[in-house]
Amino acid sequence: MNHVAFLNWLLVSLYLVDVGILSTPIAVARKGYSPRLGSVIGAGAGLIGALAGLFIFTPLLGLVLQLLQAILGVFSDNIHFADDLKISFSLGAGQNILPIKFDIEADVPRDIAFLRSLVVGVGTYIGGMILLNLLWRFIPSQGAVTEATALRYNTIARQVRGRILQAHFMVAIVIAITVLMALMWNIIKGTFTMTAVSNTVAPESLTDGRSLGDIEEPELAQILVGNISGNRGRQLIQDYVWGVGDAEARDRKSEPLVEALGKGNWPEDLSVYVPNQDPSQEPEYITYQNLSKQPDVVAAILSYNLTTSDLETLVTAEVVQPFVVATWTLDRTLLDYKGIEKELDVINNSRRESDPDWNDARLQFRSWLSLNFVTQRLNAAPELTGMRNAILGSLLMISITALFAFPIGIGAAIYLEEYANDNWINRIIQTNIDNLAGVPSIIYGLLGLAVFVRTMRPITSGEVFGLGQGNGNTVLSAALTMGLLILPLIIINAQEAIQAVQPSIRQASFGLGATKWQTVWNHVLPYAMPGILTGTILAISRAVGETAPLVVVGASAFILKDPSGPFSRFTALPIQIYSWTEQPRDADKAVAAAAIILLLALLLTLNSIAILLRNRFERNLGRH
Question: What's the distance, CA 324 to chain centroid?
């Protein structure tokens, strides 16, 4: 028996023992036996049945499959369950009576192992259940049992079953907590790592030995522009100052840059004309097209628009270009630091042999989750990236989602519970709401793409309001899509909370002369609000972590501009986590782990706010 088959047999055996422990006490109590003894007998019967299934019913099931193979072989000459590299099955006996054919190119050893493990599991289950049913049905009775004895045994049997189920519950909680802690440890050890970092260019060679942090914006901008190409400087202005895509930049490449960038982003003391022009000709405006030939202008614009921190990050990313050579997780760092140093020496020696200009990598204990990681913009290099754009995008999106879905969901729940008549239209609406709560999120993404991104593009892009860029892949489209995703959950939870309000509260309100709406607004909703907020917490938690709808509606995997409003292009934390986990390097995985912790922190913060609101409603109800 291979290890897969053994694991299958072990799981089925544990299930049979569990069934025996839970079911046998009540079965034997009805026949006059002690329920506690019945649980022991049931456990033994389940184990014996599992062994019988392994040694008796599993071989019988194998014989049945061989017989089936022989029978089907009459119709086809090339059907095999075990040996062939190509499993081919066809019916028709050469006459095409039933022209059905399946060809499966397969890894035969793996398929055979799976088939054998399946046979072991099914045979074990059959044997165990047969033995348990025989035990329950044919265990001899102790004769007539008095009513008092039967009642006592039945009570004991239910108590035994209750204690067993309680033990199951506690075991499940322990397993769940253990798995959660293992998952968190896996994330944490990937977030805090020992890192070997090397630089393409030594920072001291750029600053005469000074630290980059001691230099002001104009000098940082000059260092940056002096060490990159003109086209790259122009691209940095497009990404970090202008904040538009390549297509729009091409469309506006001939416009005066002072108009394209906007008045607030243009240094007042900077000429808008290209210098060194022939005096006899009209002066030429600086445009995006000829900006690559104006390094002083590029440096001035970057210095005027970016902070010292942003410029320092750009110099590091574009010129110094640090890169992670290797990473070691937290557990390895704590337990085998000497081994890490030896591995680093081997790496540096190997790199020096192939590259004489190699800057030796140095060990740094790095927390990938830091204040800079929260406050800095995204960067293509994992060593320098931040998550500010993604955090702001997630917060803006989920805020609009809540503003859209919460009032509509509560209004729909109030109508269905308090005002709707019991007719076929309302029953159809209720059935559809119940079904929509279980629809996969990718379907909502496709709906959002068709409706909000394409059909409603003039609105969701802000074009009808004179805002935005004319593109429907905006925060608003994603927020409305997420709103549709969580709307059924909010409606169903709000309905259950309204149903839980005592009818006497409504009757007392009506008895004092209140109208239907006054009763709902002043009495039903306050008592239902804690339950409504609990459902909203669950719904928002789902929306915060969803990735598939965002991918479909066009959230950017990499964007440098912070979202400025509902009509902005954006990215979100789930998208960035998905993007970084797809990258090959260890540093990418570390960034993904840090982003996961950020996402969990954001989720816990939003949930805490909702819980505080719920508790406040409960306290207010307690005062009344």
Answer: 26
Query: Sign of dihedral through CA atoms 500, 503, 508, 511?
Result: positive
| Residues with Cβ within 8 Å of residue 354, at least 6 apart in sequence | none
Torsions phi, psi of 336, nearest 5? -145, 55
* Gap between the Cα atoms of 125 and 437, Å rounded: 35
Q: Which tokens is 473 given?
A: 């892949």
pLDDT (tens digit, 9 = 90+) per residue, 249-299?
Answer: 888 888 888 877 776 677 777 777 876 666 666 777 888 888 888 888 889
Residue owning tokens 């306290």:
619
The better pLDDT of the pair 517, 157 is held by 517
Are 169 and 60 a contacting pair, CB within 8 Å? no
Task: State which H helix or E strand residue 197 sits in.
Answer: strand 192-199
Question: What span, in angstroms and rounded, lies between the C-alpha atoms of 18 and 132?
Answer: 11
Helix (H, G, I), strand (E, B) or coil at 75: coil
Question: Three-state SS string across 346-377, please?
Answer: HHHHHHHHHCCCCCCCEEEEEECCCHHHHHCC
Q: What percent of the chain has pLDDT over 70?
A: 89
Torsion of Cα atoms, 92 then 96 then 99 then 103, to 10°: 60
Q: Per residue in 203-213, pLDDT tens?
A: 878 887 788 87
- Whether residue 447 contacts residue 482, with contact meaning beta carbons closer than 8 Å, is answered with no
Mean pLDDT of 534-541: 85
Task: Please list the residues that pair with 327 across neighbouring strands.
Answer: 195
pLDDT band at 564 (very low <50, low <70, confident <90, very high): confident
DSSP code, position 271: -
Q: Which two tokens stand for residue 553?
A: 């509606």
Nearest CA among 53, 38, 251, 17 for reference residue 157: 38
Q: How far apart are CA 11 and CA 474, in angstroms?
A: 49
Give yes or no for residue 620 having a pLDDT over 50.
Answer: yes
Residue 184 near residue 325 (C-beta atoms within 8 A): no
For residues 298 and 241, is the Cβ–Cβ distance under 8 A?
no
> Residue 557 gets which letter from DSSP?
S
∠ CA 512-513-518, nearest 5°, is 100
Distance of CA 382 to the CA centre of its chain: 20
- Indicate the domain borders of the chain: 2-145, 204-375, 388-623
Query: Do the Cβ atoms of 17 and 47 come closer than 8 Å?
Result: yes
Q: How do strand 322-328 and strand 192-199 relate by DSSP bridges?
A: antiparallel
Q: What is the rounded radius of gyration, in angstroms, for the C-alpha atoms of the chain?
A: 35
Residue 322's beta-bridge partner residues?
Answer: 199
Q: Which CATH class is domain 388-623?
A: mainly alpha
What pLDDT digit, counting tens, does each position of 24-48 carry? Answer: 887 777 777 777 788 888 888 888 8
Question: In the structure encoding, which two tokens stand for residue 93, read together?
Answer: 């006996």
The torsion angles phi and psi of 428, rounded to 5 degrees, stand at -65, -40
Counting every residue written for the chain, the total comes to: 624
Rounded to two decimals, what is the model's pTM? 0.70
